[in-house]
Amino acid sequence: MWRNAQEGLICLGAPRGKQQTFVLLDEWVPAAKPLAREEALAKLVVRYFTSHGPATVKDFVWWSGLTVKDAQAGIGTNASQLASERGDGKTYWMARRMSALRPRSPVVHLLPGFDEYILGYTERDPILDPGHARRVYSGLNLLFNPTIVVDGRIQGTWKRLIRKDKVALSLHPFTTLNKAQAHALQRAVQRYGEFLGLRAAS
After folding, report:
1. Helix, strand, or coil (residue 67)
2. Which residues contact 166 (CB under 8 A, 6 or more apart)?
3. Which pTM does this prediction carry?
4. With respect to CATH, is domain 37-99 assigned 1.25.40.80?
5. In whole angstroms, what is the distance from residue 173 CA to residue 154 CA?
6. In what order do the strands lie in the sheet with 153-162?
7. pLDDT single digits (tens) 128-164
8. Domain locations along the chain
9. How far apart are CA 191 and CA 186, in angstroms?
10. How far is residue 166's CA from residue 189's CA, in Å, rounded to a whole number?
């Protein structure tokens, strides 16, 4: 079964009760238009930097497994869609429209443990104080805790307990949040409850 999945014959299907099912890939995934390597590379580069930007070429190379030359070629092909900014001696790439965005502060998100926001980059210092890193993940067992993100910075962790009619969230900020941040955090808790279709409490 594993080899058939690796060769693209089958893939995971919808669970049946507690049992995992498998389906033919051709029946489950819509047919895709074949792309030449240059076109595929251009699409991959623009999708990475529009979904992960601001990010560096080094980030893309680590995430994709491709080369710096590939990254630079893809950026060149998408010059009209991407913008760059310099910071800390590095060049960060992003969608051109993103460079003009200035979201209202504070913005708070509750992210799951293994989210791309923390896994999709080579360095975490821009979003996480190294002094708090061990509270977010362990280098020994690669366990990543769910995080509280405030204005782009990881400022705490959280856990959940789902009951019949509600979800209880245990919040653990690294530092004391100001009034506006605390209010935005509670809005994030309510959004999470709405996502699950349950009453949320913290």
Report:
1. coil
2. 193, 198, 199, 200, 201
3. 0.76
4. no
5. 9
6. 108-111, 147-150, 153-162, 166-173, 199-201
7. 999 998 899 876 667 889 999 999 999 999 999 998 8
8. 1-32, 37-99, 108-201
9. 9
10. 12
